[in-house]
């Protein structure tokens, strides 16, 4: 079949642990622009990639071509809210620009075919200066502690996407029902835990569970969103006795890796890596035939390392994207119980180093395989 290549510039990337693109993203959460090459099947010879028609593509921005998974095409608008001294001004850009979004190697990529994101933000700055008197604008910026309106917009503008294919579901770190969580009373099924239960943590002894959330995914939901299929880590797949029995977690659930290889690569003996980056290991694979799954997420005062079926893995990381990925009901509950976690200036501290690049994590796993070393030593 014919293939074509297209060199793209001014790509915007998001390197968080997303399964897809949320409806809104804060500009400061996006990485700097990058360039790369999109290679795609052109089955109908029209010179365009027709994702919906099944034409596949690869994306290469670092010398390695990775399969590109389509998220959607549509439009994006930007807005910014100025809140100071009791004054709230919501400024929204009236026009929108076209955007196409895809995923490759665990990252989300945004492509603006008619102009880069900078034009969108410049338009927002222009509208702000037209809408607010210079005196008031200076007062507001001084109160916000910023010297440049463009700087403020670049850090606080929110992009809102309207994608024709719909947005993929984000999903926070979760344990599947039946997972044994180590408590002060011994191993307990995760679904039987309640707030107040004292859970064994690696760094802070037994800590009270602050909140537990749950989400049921039916067979139909899993068929529509195959990337949400749970990952099974078989007994001994991480090392001798780790886990002690098969462990089933959500794809983005991070597992603790502890080795000299990690020390050499990151300068950190211990790092947290998503379960879906471990599938090249023997004994780690998606559950393809699962009928449904009940996921549970555990929240503590801080990001913790807990013990699930004997293996060390993370609790819910309360970064802004993880919180947005909760169901509306769960987010409202967390916001009511712990408003500080949903504050714009909340910056959680990860329990361990979180490698950003998916390719680097793959190299970490590959080195363990080639050297026949367990992931947790």
Automatic annotation (TrEMBL):
It comes from the Bacteria. Pfam families: Hint_2. Residues 173-319 form the Hedgehog/Intein (Hint) domain. This is Hint domain-containing protein. It comes from Thioclava kandeliae.
């Amino acid at each position: 079949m014919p293939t074509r290549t297209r060199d793209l510039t001014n790509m915007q990337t998001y390197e968080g642990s997303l399964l897809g693109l949320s409806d809104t993203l804060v500009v400061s959460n996006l990485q700097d622009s990058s360039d790369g090459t999109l290679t795609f099947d052109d089955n109908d010879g029209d010179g365009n990639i027709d994702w919906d028609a099944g034409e596949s593509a690869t994306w290469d921005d670092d010398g390695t071509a990775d399969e590109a998974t389509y998220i959607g095409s549509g439009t994006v608008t930007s807005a910014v809210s100025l809140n100071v001294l009791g004054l709230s001004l919501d400024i929204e850009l009236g026009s929108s620009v076209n955007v196409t979004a895809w995923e490759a190697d665990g990252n989300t990529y945004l492509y603006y075919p008619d102009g880069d994101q900078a034009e969108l933000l410049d338009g927002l700055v222009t509208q702000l200066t037209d809408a607010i008197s210079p005196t008031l604008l200076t007062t507001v910026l001084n109160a916000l502690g910023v010297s440049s309106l463009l700087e403020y917009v670049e850090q606080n503008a929110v992009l809102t996407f309207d994608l024709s294919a719909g947005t993929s579901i984000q999903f926070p770190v979760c344990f599947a029902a039946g997972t044994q969580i180590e408590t002060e009373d011994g191993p307990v099924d995760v679904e039987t835990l309640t707030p107040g239960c004292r859970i064994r943590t690696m760094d802070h002894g037994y800590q009270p569970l602050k909140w537990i959330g749950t989400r049921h995914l039916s067979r139909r939901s899993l068929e529509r969103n195959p990337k949400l299929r749970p990952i099974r880590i078989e007994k001994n797949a991480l090392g001798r006795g780790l886990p002690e029995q098969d462990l089933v977690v959500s794809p983005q659930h991070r597992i603790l890796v502890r080795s000299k290889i990690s020390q050499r690569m990151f300068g950190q003996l211990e790092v947290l890596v998503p379960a879906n980056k471990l599938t090249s290991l023997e004994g780690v694979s998606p559950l393809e035939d699962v009928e449904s799954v009940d996921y549970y997420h555990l929240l503590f005062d801080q990001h913790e390392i807990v013990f699930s079926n004997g293996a060390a893995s993370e609790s819910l990381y309360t970064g802004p994207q993880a919180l947005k990925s909760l169901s509306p009901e769960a987010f409202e509950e967390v916001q009511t119980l712990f408003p500080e976690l949903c504050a714009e200036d909340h910056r959680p501290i990860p329990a361990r180093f979180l490698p950003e690049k998916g390719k680097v994590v793959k190299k970490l796993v590959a080195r363990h395989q080639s050297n026949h070393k367990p992931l947790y030593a």
